[in-house]
Design a protein that fits this description.
There is one protein chain. The protein has helices spanning 51-56, 59-65, 129-132, 136-149, 166-177, 191-196, 210-213, 226-230, 251-257, 270-281, 298-305, and strands spanning 10-16, 25-31, 39-49, 76-84, 96-100, 112-116, 120-122, 157-160, 181-186, 201-204, 217-222, 236-244, 260-263, 289-294, 313-317. By secondary structure, it is an alpha/beta fold. The strands form three sheets. Strands 3, 4, 5, 6, 7, 14 and 15 form a seven-stranded mixed beta sheet that branches. β12 (236-244), α9 (251-257) and β13 form a beta-alpha-beta unit. The two termini are 31 Å apart. The chain binds NADP nicotinamide-adenine-dinucleotide phosphate. NADP nicotinamide-adenine-dinucleotide phosphate (NAP) binds at residues 50-52, 137-138, 141, 161-162, 164-168, 185-187, 190, 205, 223-224, 228, 245-246, 264-266, 305, 308-310. Residues 50-52, 137-138, 141, 161-162, 164-168, 185-187, 190, 205, 223-224, 228, 245-246, 264-266, 305, 308-310 line the site of NADP nicotinamide-adenine-dinucleotide phosphate.
Length: 323
Protein backbone atom coordinates (compact mmCIF):
# COMPACT_ATOMS: atom_id res chain seq x y z
CA UNK A 1 0.00 0.00 0.00
CA UNK A 2 1.21 3.57 -0.59
CA UNK A 3 2.63 5.20 2.50
CA UNK A 4 -0.23 6.50 4.55
CA UNK A 5 -1.12 7.77 7.98
CA UNK A 6 -2.78 5.39 10.41
CA UNK A 7 -4.69 8.29 11.95
CA UNK A 8 -8.25 9.06 10.89
CA UNK A 9 -10.14 9.87 8.74
CA UNK A 10 -10.96 6.43 7.44
CA UNK A 11 -12.40 5.39 4.09
CA UNK A 12 -14.04 2.33 2.58
CA UNK A 13 -11.70 0.22 0.46
CA UNK A 14 -11.06 -3.26 -0.87
CA UNK A 15 -8.01 -4.53 1.02
CA UNK A 16 -5.92 -7.65 0.33
CA UNK A 17 -4.25 -9.06 3.45
CA UNK A 18 -3.14 -12.38 1.94
CA UNK A 19 -2.55 -13.73 -1.56
CA UNK A 20 -5.25 -15.89 -3.08
CA UNK A 21 -8.45 -15.99 -5.12
CA UNK A 22 -11.20 -13.35 -5.29
CA UNK A 23 -12.23 -14.28 -1.70
CA UNK A 24 -9.18 -12.40 -0.33
CA UNK A 25 -10.69 -9.09 -1.48
CA UNK A 26 -12.12 -7.61 1.74
CA UNK A 27 -14.43 -4.59 1.77
CA UNK A 28 -13.49 -2.72 4.96
CA UNK A 29 -12.34 0.51 6.58
CA UNK A 30 -8.82 1.64 5.76
CA UNK A 31 -6.91 4.82 6.60
CA UNK A 32 -7.35 7.60 4.06
CA UNK A 33 -3.97 8.16 2.35
CA UNK A 34 -2.14 11.47 2.69
CA UNK A 35 -0.44 12.89 -0.44
CA UNK A 36 3.33 13.45 -0.49
CA UNK A 37 4.60 16.63 -2.12
CA UNK A 38 4.59 15.08 -5.62
CA UNK A 39 1.15 13.45 -5.26
CA UNK A 40 -2.51 14.37 -5.48
CA UNK A 41 -5.24 12.85 -3.34
CA UNK A 42 -8.22 11.92 -5.52
CA UNK A 43 -11.77 11.37 -4.27
CA UNK A 44 -12.59 8.33 -6.38
CA UNK A 45 -15.96 8.23 -8.13
CA UNK A 46 -15.31 5.07 -10.16
CA UNK A 47 -12.59 2.44 -10.59
CA UNK A 48 -12.00 0.30 -13.67
CA UNK A 49 -11.32 -3.43 -13.41
CA UNK A 50 -8.52 -5.04 -15.45
CA UNK A 51 -7.10 -8.56 -15.87
CA UNK A 52 -3.95 -7.33 -14.11
CA UNK A 53 -6.00 -6.64 -10.93
CA UNK A 54 -6.64 -10.36 -10.76
CA UNK A 55 -2.91 -11.09 -11.18
CA UNK A 56 -1.92 -8.60 -8.47
CA UNK A 57 -3.39 -10.74 -5.67
CA UNK A 58 -1.28 -13.76 -6.69
CA UNK A 59 2.06 -13.99 -4.90
CA UNK A 60 4.01 -14.45 -8.13
CA UNK A 61 2.80 -11.25 -9.79
CA UNK A 62 2.61 -9.22 -6.59
CA UNK A 63 6.34 -9.87 -6.07
CA UNK A 64 7.07 -9.08 -9.71
CA UNK A 65 5.23 -5.74 -9.42
CA UNK A 66 6.87 -4.94 -6.03
CA UNK A 67 3.57 -5.07 -4.13
CA UNK A 68 3.71 -5.73 -0.39
CA UNK A 69 0.80 -6.87 1.83
CA UNK A 70 -1.60 -5.45 2.82
CA UNK A 71 -2.53 -3.57 -0.34
CA UNK A 72 -5.47 -1.98 -2.09
CA UNK A 73 -5.78 -3.20 -5.70
CA UNK A 74 -6.95 -1.15 -8.68
CA UNK A 75 -5.07 0.86 -11.29
CA UNK A 76 -7.82 2.75 -13.14
CA UNK A 77 -9.66 5.60 -11.47
CA UNK A 78 -11.73 8.67 -12.23
CA UNK A 79 -12.49 11.23 -9.58
CA UNK A 80 -11.93 14.72 -8.21
CA UNK A 81 -8.70 16.14 -6.84
CA UNK A 82 -9.19 16.61 -3.11
CA UNK A 83 -5.69 17.77 -2.15
CA UNK A 84 -2.47 18.53 -4.03
CA UNK A 85 1.11 18.19 -2.73
CA UNK A 86 3.45 21.22 -2.78
CA UNK A 87 5.23 20.17 -6.00
CA UNK A 88 2.07 19.60 -8.03
CA UNK A 89 1.95 22.12 -10.91
CA UNK A 90 -0.68 21.07 -13.44
CA UNK A 91 -3.59 19.93 -11.24
CA UNK A 92 -5.46 21.51 -8.33
CA UNK A 93 -8.23 20.67 -5.86
CA UNK A 94 -11.60 20.44 -7.59
CA UNK A 95 -10.19 19.24 -10.94
CA UNK A 96 -11.91 16.24 -12.49
CA UNK A 97 -9.21 13.70 -13.42
CA UNK A 98 -8.64 10.16 -14.54
CA UNK A 99 -5.51 8.14 -13.89
CA UNK A 100 -3.58 4.94 -14.47
CA UNK A 101 -1.86 4.25 -11.12
CA UNK A 102 1.47 2.42 -11.23
CA UNK A 103 1.47 -1.35 -10.73
CA UNK A 104 3.40 -1.29 -7.46
CA UNK A 105 1.17 1.16 -5.62
CA UNK A 106 -2.29 0.66 -7.15
CA UNK A 107 -4.89 1.76 -4.59
CA UNK A 108 -7.80 2.43 -6.93
CA UNK A 109 -10.47 0.26 -5.26
CA UNK A 110 -11.08 2.86 -2.55
CA UNK A 111 -12.89 6.07 -1.77
CA UNK A 112 -9.58 7.97 -1.92
CA UNK A 113 -6.41 7.22 -3.87
CA UNK A 114 -3.04 8.83 -4.55
CA UNK A 115 -1.57 9.64 -7.96
CA UNK A 116 1.37 11.54 -9.39
CA UNK A 117 1.16 14.02 -12.26
CA UNK A 118 2.69 11.38 -14.52
CA UNK A 119 -0.30 9.12 -13.75
CA UNK A 120 -3.23 11.57 -13.84
CA UNK A 121 -4.69 13.81 -16.54
CA UNK A 122 -7.85 15.92 -16.86
CA UNK A 123 -10.82 13.60 -17.37
CA UNK A 124 -12.56 13.76 -20.79
CA UNK A 125 -15.37 16.32 -20.52
CA UNK A 126 -17.90 14.54 -22.72
CA UNK A 127 -18.18 11.31 -20.70
CA UNK A 128 -19.03 10.65 -17.06
CA UNK A 129 -16.70 9.39 -14.32
CA UNK A 130 -17.86 5.78 -14.70
CA UNK A 131 -16.94 5.76 -18.39
CA UNK A 132 -13.71 7.64 -17.68
CA UNK A 133 -12.59 4.97 -15.21
CA UNK A 134 -12.85 2.44 -18.06
CA UNK A 135 -10.21 4.22 -20.11
CA UNK A 136 -6.69 4.68 -18.68
CA UNK A 137 -4.97 1.26 -18.55
CA UNK A 138 -6.45 -0.23 -21.71
CA UNK A 139 -6.34 2.94 -23.82
CA UNK A 140 -2.73 3.62 -22.80
CA UNK A 141 -1.89 -0.01 -23.64
CA UNK A 142 -3.46 0.24 -27.09
CA UNK A 143 -1.71 3.58 -27.69
CA UNK A 144 1.71 2.41 -26.54
CA UNK A 145 1.41 -0.84 -28.51
CA UNK A 146 0.20 0.64 -31.81
CA UNK A 147 1.71 4.12 -31.85
CA UNK A 148 4.82 4.02 -29.64
CA UNK A 149 5.94 0.44 -30.33
CA UNK A 150 4.64 -0.63 -33.76
CA UNK A 151 4.67 2.96 -35.17
CA UNK A 152 1.36 2.38 -36.98
CA UNK A 153 0.82 5.00 -39.67
CA UNK A 154 -1.96 6.16 -41.99
CA UNK A 155 -2.72 3.80 -44.85
CA UNK A 156 -1.29 0.74 -43.10
CA UNK A 157 -3.35 -2.36 -42.27
CA UNK A 158 -3.49 -3.66 -38.71
CA UNK A 159 -4.88 -6.95 -37.40
CA UNK A 160 -6.21 -6.52 -33.85
CA UNK A 161 -6.86 -9.72 -31.93
CA UNK A 162 -9.43 -9.53 -29.11
CA UNK A 163 -11.07 -6.44 -30.64
CA UNK A 164 -14.09 -6.54 -28.30
CA UNK A 165 -12.15 -6.46 -25.01
CA UNK A 166 -10.80 -3.56 -23.01
CA UNK A 167 -7.60 -3.08 -25.01
CA UNK A 168 -9.16 -4.12 -28.33
CA UNK A 169 -12.06 -1.65 -28.27
CA UNK A 170 -9.59 1.22 -27.89
CA UNK A 171 -7.05 -0.26 -30.31
CA UNK A 172 -9.61 -0.42 -33.14
CA UNK A 173 -10.59 3.22 -32.63
CA UNK A 174 -7.04 4.54 -32.14
CA UNK A 175 -5.97 2.77 -35.33
CA UNK A 176 -8.93 4.22 -37.25
CA UNK A 177 -8.21 7.72 -35.89
CA UNK A 178 -4.64 7.19 -37.16
CA UNK A 179 -5.95 6.49 -40.66
CA UNK A 180 -5.21 2.76 -40.70
CA UNK A 181 -7.33 -0.06 -42.13
CA UNK A 182 -8.48 -2.35 -39.31
CA UNK A 183 -9.12 -6.08 -39.30
CA UNK A 184 -10.32 -7.27 -35.88
CA UNK A 185 -11.20 -10.61 -34.26
CA UNK A 186 -13.79 -11.56 -31.62
CA UNK A 187 -16.39 -14.27 -31.02
CA UNK A 188 -19.82 -14.39 -32.68
CA UNK A 189 -21.68 -12.29 -30.10
CA UNK A 190 -19.21 -9.41 -30.51
CA UNK A 191 -19.14 -9.11 -34.32
CA UNK A 192 -21.60 -6.20 -34.18
CA UNK A 193 -19.37 -4.38 -31.70
CA UNK A 194 -16.29 -4.69 -33.93
CA UNK A 195 -18.22 -3.05 -36.77
CA UNK A 196 -19.73 -0.39 -34.51
CA UNK A 197 -16.22 0.59 -33.41
CA UNK A 198 -15.13 1.03 -37.01
CA UNK A 199 -13.39 -2.24 -37.94
CA UNK A 200 -13.24 -2.54 -41.75
CA UNK A 201 -13.18 -6.34 -41.53
CA UNK A 202 -14.62 -8.31 -38.58
CA UNK A 203 -13.51 -11.92 -38.11
CA UNK A 204 -15.38 -14.44 -35.95
CA UNK A 205 -12.52 -16.51 -34.54
CA UNK A 206 -14.95 -19.27 -33.52
CA UNK A 207 -15.97 -19.84 -37.16
CA UNK A 208 -13.13 -18.56 -39.33
CA UNK A 209 -9.35 -18.87 -39.33
CA UNK A 210 -8.07 -15.31 -39.23
CA UNK A 211 -5.11 -16.28 -41.45
CA UNK A 212 -7.55 -17.19 -44.26
CA UNK A 213 -8.79 -13.59 -44.30
CA UNK A 214 -6.00 -11.34 -43.01
CA UNK A 215 -2.97 -11.42 -45.31
CA UNK A 216 0.04 -9.13 -45.76
CA UNK A 217 -0.84 -6.87 -42.84
CA UNK A 218 1.63 -4.23 -41.65
CA UNK A 219 0.99 -4.66 -37.93
CA UNK A 220 -0.54 -7.27 -35.59
CA UNK A 221 -1.65 -6.38 -32.07
CA UNK A 222 -1.79 -9.62 -30.07
CA UNK A 223 -3.70 -9.65 -26.79
CA UNK A 224 -4.42 -13.41 -26.84
CA UNK A 225 -1.03 -15.20 -27.15
CA UNK A 226 -0.39 -18.95 -27.53
CA UNK A 227 -1.79 -20.39 -30.78
CA UNK A 228 -3.11 -16.97 -31.86
CA UNK A 229 0.39 -15.48 -31.70
CA UNK A 230 1.93 -18.58 -33.30
CA UNK A 231 -0.43 -18.28 -36.29
CA UNK A 232 0.08 -14.54 -36.63
CA UNK A 233 3.68 -14.49 -37.95
CA UNK A 234 2.54 -15.70 -41.36
CA UNK A 235 -0.02 -12.92 -41.93
CA UNK A 236 2.48 -10.06 -41.59
CA UNK A 237 4.15 -8.67 -44.73
CA UNK A 238 7.96 -8.51 -44.88
CA UNK A 239 9.25 -5.65 -42.75
CA UNK A 240 5.99 -5.60 -40.74
CA UNK A 241 5.60 -5.71 -36.97
CA UNK A 242 3.95 -7.92 -34.32
CA UNK A 243 3.40 -6.33 -30.92
CA UNK A 244 2.18 -8.64 -28.18
CA UNK A 245 0.91 -7.49 -24.81
CA UNK A 246 0.72 -11.04 -23.44
CA UNK A 247 3.80 -12.90 -24.74
CA UNK A 248 7.28 -12.46 -26.20
CA UNK A 249 7.30 -12.96 -29.98
CA UNK A 250 9.63 -15.81 -30.98
CA UNK A 251 12.85 -14.36 -32.51
CA UNK A 252 13.26 -17.41 -34.79
CA UNK A 253 9.74 -16.94 -36.23
CA UNK A 254 10.31 -13.21 -36.69
CA UNK A 255 13.54 -13.87 -38.58
CA UNK A 256 12.01 -16.65 -40.67
CA UNK A 257 9.24 -14.30 -41.87
CA UNK A 258 11.46 -11.22 -42.25
CA UNK A 259 9.42 -9.22 -39.74
CA UNK A 260 10.02 -7.45 -36.45
CA UNK A 261 8.28 -7.83 -33.12
CA UNK A 262 8.20 -6.85 -29.47
CA UNK A 263 6.33 -7.48 -26.26
CA UNK A 264 5.40 -4.48 -24.14
CA UNK A 265 4.21 -3.53 -20.68
CA UNK A 266 2.12 -0.38 -20.34
CA UNK A 267 3.58 2.58 -18.41
CA UNK A 268 1.62 5.46 -16.88
CA UNK A 269 1.78 8.47 -19.21
CA UNK A 270 -0.42 11.48 -18.52
CA UNK A 271 0.41 13.19 -21.85
CA UNK A 272 -0.98 10.19 -23.71
CA UNK A 273 -4.03 10.11 -21.43
CA UNK A 274 -4.65 13.79 -22.24
CA UNK A 275 -4.38 13.02 -25.98
CA UNK A 276 -6.75 10.05 -25.66
CA UNK A 277 -9.16 12.30 -23.73
CA UNK A 278 -9.12 14.77 -26.64
CA UNK A 279 -10.00 11.99 -29.10
CA UNK A 280 -12.89 10.98 -26.82
CA UNK A 281 -14.15 14.57 -26.64
CA UNK A 282 -13.85 14.84 -30.45
CA UNK A 283 -16.10 11.75 -30.63
CA UNK A 284 -13.38 9.76 -32.40
CA UNK A 285 -13.31 7.23 -29.56
CA UNK A 286 -16.29 5.85 -27.64
CA UNK A 287 -16.07 3.99 -24.38
CA UNK A 288 -17.84 0.65 -23.94
CA UNK A 289 -18.83 -0.19 -20.36
CA UNK A 290 -20.76 -3.47 -20.29
CA UNK A 291 -21.31 -3.69 -16.53
CA UNK A 292 -21.09 -1.52 -13.41
CA UNK A 293 -20.98 -2.95 -9.89
CA UNK A 294 -20.66 -1.39 -6.45
CA UNK A 295 -17.15 -1.27 -4.93
CA UNK A 296 -18.15 -3.93 -2.39
CA UNK A 297 -18.67 -6.37 -5.32
CA UNK A 298 -15.05 -6.18 -6.50
CA UNK A 299 -14.65 -9.96 -6.21
CA UNK A 300 -17.59 -10.55 -8.57
CA UNK A 301 -16.14 -8.03 -11.01
CA UNK A 302 -12.73 -9.70 -10.98
CA UNK A 303 -14.29 -13.14 -11.50
CA UNK A 304 -16.04 -11.85 -14.62
CA UNK A 305 -12.88 -10.21 -15.96
CA UNK A 306 -10.92 -13.43 -15.33
CA UNK A 307 -13.15 -15.24 -17.88
CA UNK A 308 -11.22 -13.43 -20.63
CA UNK A 309 -14.50 -12.65 -22.40
CA UNK A 310 -15.50 -9.24 -21.12
CA UNK A 311 -17.18 -6.98 -23.67
CA UNK A 312 -15.56 -3.55 -23.29
CA UNK A 313 -15.03 -2.86 -19.59
CA UNK A 314 -16.41 -3.53 -16.12
CA UNK A 315 -16.36 -0.59 -13.71
CA UNK A 316 -16.78 -0.37 -9.94
CA UNK A 317 -18.95 2.53 -8.75
CA UNK A 318 -17.36 4.01 -5.66
CA UNK A 319 -19.48 7.15 -5.19
CA UNK A 320 -22.39 8.88 -6.94
CA UNK A 321 -21.59 10.86 -10.08
CA UNK A 322 -21.22 14.52 -9.04
CA UNK A 323 -24.14 16.69 -10.20
N1 LIG B 1 1.26 -5.90 -21.43
C1 LIG B 1 0.43 -4.98 -20.96
O1 LIG B 1 0.84 -3.88 -20.61
C2 LIG B 1 -1.04 -5.28 -20.87
C3 LIG B 1 -1.94 -4.23 -20.62
C4 LIG B 1 -3.32 -4.51 -20.60
C5 LIG B 1 -3.76 -5.82 -20.77
N2 LIG B 1 -2.84 -6.81 -20.97
C6 LIG B 1 -3.31 -8.20 -21.17
O2 LIG B 1 -3.94 -8.24 -22.43
C7 LIG B 1 -5.02 -9.17 -22.41
C8 LIG B 1 -6.29 -8.46 -22.87
O3 LIG B 1 -6.61 -7.45 -21.92
P1 LIG B 1 -8.06 -6.81 -21.95
O4 LIG B 1 -8.14 -5.88 -20.80
O5 LIG B 1 -8.39 -6.32 -23.29
O6 LIG B 1 -8.93 -8.13 -21.64
P2 LIG B 1 -10.51 -8.37 -21.79
O7 LIG B 1 -11.21 -7.07 -21.60
O8 LIG B 1 -10.83 -9.51 -20.93
O9 LIG B 1 -10.73 -8.76 -23.32
C9 LIG B 1 -10.34 -9.96 -23.84
C10 LIG B 1 -11.01 -10.08 -25.21
O10 LIG B 1 -10.36 -11.13 -25.93
C11 LIG B 1 -11.33 -11.76 -26.74
N3 LIG B 1 -10.84 -13.12 -27.01
C12 LIG B 1 -10.77 -14.18 -26.16
N4 LIG B 1 -10.21 -15.24 -26.81
C13 LIG B 1 -9.92 -14.82 -28.07
C14 LIG B 1 -9.35 -15.44 -29.22
N5 LIG B 1 -8.94 -16.71 -29.20
N6 LIG B 1 -9.19 -14.69 -30.35
C15 LIG B 1 -9.59 -13.42 -30.40
N7 LIG B 1 -10.15 -12.77 -29.34
C16 LIG B 1 -10.31 -13.47 -28.20
C17 LIG B 1 -12.61 -11.72 -25.97
O11 LIG B 1 -13.68 -11.61 -26.88
P3 LIG B 1 -14.82 -12.75 -26.96
O12 LIG B 1 -15.57 -12.70 -25.64
O13 LIG B 1 -15.62 -12.33 -28.13
O14 LIG B 1 -14.08 -14.07 -27.11
C18 LIG B 1 -12.48 -10.44 -25.12
O15 LIG B 1 -13.25 -9.39 -25.64
C19 LIG B 1 -5.09 -9.70 -20.97
O16 LIG B 1 -4.39 -10.93 -20.93
C20 LIG B 1 -4.34 -8.66 -20.17
O17 LIG B 1 -3.76 -9.19 -19.00
C21 LIG B 1 -1.50 -6.58 -21.01
Amino acid sequence: MREETSSKPAMKAIVVHQYGGPEVLKYEDAPRPEPKEDQILIRVIAAGVNPVDDASRSEKYAKFFGITLPFIPGYDIAGIVEKAGAKIRKLKPGDAVYAYLNLKDGGGYAEYALATEREAAPKPKSIDFTESAAVPVVAATAWQALIDTAKLSAGQTVLIHGGSGGVGTFAIQIAKARGAKVIATASTRNQDLLKELGADVAIDYTKQKFEDIAKDVDVVLDSVGKDTLARSYGVVKKGGFIVSIVARPDPAELEKHGIRGASMGVEPNSDELAEIGRLIDEKKIKVIVSQTLPLADAARAQEQVATGHTRGKIVLKVADEPK
